[in-house]
Input
Amino acid sequence: MDSENSTWWKINAGDDGTLRNAWLDGPIISIGWSVGDFRELDDQEIVEKDSSPNSQLSKFVGATTGPVDEAMTEGDHVIAYALPC
Output
């Protein structure tokens, strides 16, 4: 693992760990903003609709109008934290 050239992301499984089991069963990660379906939108449209702090939602779904290293991409590392259920 080349951590020097890797991008790392940290996400929480909800304030009380409610997403923990879904992540372990998936295996998936998810974000808890209810903002609709972005699958049909291009990066510019996602960024324009993103009202999250620091455009974090756009970055999590891999959309950016800035430098590529600001968006989550395949090969990035994700540290997921969840409180015990």
In short: Residues 3-81 form one domain.
